Amino acid sequence: MSKLAAYSVDKKSQEYDEYQFTLPELFRDIAKEELREDDSVREQSLTEMRQWIANNENIWKCRTDAKFLLRFLRFQKFSVPMACEALERYLMMRETYPSWFQNLDSYDAAMKELYLDGSTSILGQDSAGRTVIFFRVARFVAEKVVPPKGGKFIALLLEAMLEWEEVQIGGLQLMVDYSDMDLAIFEKWSTSELRLIMDAYSRLYPLRFNDVHAAKLPKKAVPIVEMLLSFTDPKIRERINCYASVAEMQKHFEPAMVPNVYGGQVDLDILNQSVWSRIEQQRDVVLGMDNMEINLDHYAPIWDEMNVATLPADVSSA
User: Fold this and answer.
1) Cβ neighbourhood burial of 103 (10 Å; 0-12, 13-18, 19+)
2) Is the pLDDT of residue 293 over 90?
3) 43: nearest Cα among 24, 16, 5
4) Is 65 exposed, middle or buried, given 0-12, 13-18 or 19+ CB atoms closer than 10 A?
5) Cβ within 8 Å of residue 147, ≥6 positions away
6) How much is the pLDDT for 318?
């Protein structure tokens, strides 16, 4: 797979890319039935959103390619006003806390090591088009996931996946194995930092979450997880299913997607290497988004009113 180039952030481009739907028909059907998307709606909505960006004096530089804008249009089921609002929230997040949400570099050895440690595996799409992500919480090493590095790791994965239209349309399904987790992974995190990342992951990134299946949460970890969930979008909390055993959770994997650690056919080491290679191909695309720019003086009071986090705003990228 060839390396992908960064997109322009000229918000008043003289010529926009011509969008073509290239995914399998399954995703066209999902887009139509769940997101109200068809060729006509898509074209009209992209036109309206691009015009809104061009006329917004407080957005100085922004991607306007179809794939980027469709993140927000699909997230808001093609309500253009709501998609524009979601874009503003996303840009505020990135610029208010650049040390958390910018300089997401897949060539960074620490980021690669975190992924290949096997704590997080992107398994691919199931038969319903959902992208399945498998977490083995015990594989997170406390000293490797200190803030903001631990937050940037997940942010890098989310930015990379949002470049994949199958994720925009089919959404995510999370499988979480808490077996033998180490509570030390939370020791360096303040409540404000935990709130910031949970708000970001569940509200500010334009992601569609489907079911969450979690197993073997130790009793001593319940208060921490309950606190994390209190910062999460209530719609996501309603979709969480908890199990006393991994065997119960495992039933919710499609047979072809069962990881080898559960006796299935998916070799996680090989898969993780392959997925990371795909993420590396998008390095310039992800880093190029750091060139987007807003009038932070205008948006700072709006961010404060949103009450997302109480951390001091960053003054420069990490």
Assistant:
1) middle
2) yes
3) 16
4) middle
5) 100, 188, 189, 190, 193
6) 39
Token couple for 134: 């498998």
DSSP string over 157-182: HHHHHHTSHHHHHH-EEEEEE-TT--
Beta strands in 38-188 (DSSP E): 59-61, 120-125, 131-136, 172-177
pLDDT digits (tens, 9 = 90+) for 135-166: 999 999 999 999 999 999 999 999 999 999 99
Contact 50, 61 (CB under 8 A): no
| E-state strands within the chain | 59-61, 120-125, 131-136, 172-177, 209-215, 240-243, 293-294
Check: CB of residue 66 under 8 Å from CB of residue 16.
yes
Q: What pLDDT does 305 receive?
A: 87
Per-residue pLDDT, 8: 95
pTM above 0.90, yes or no: yes
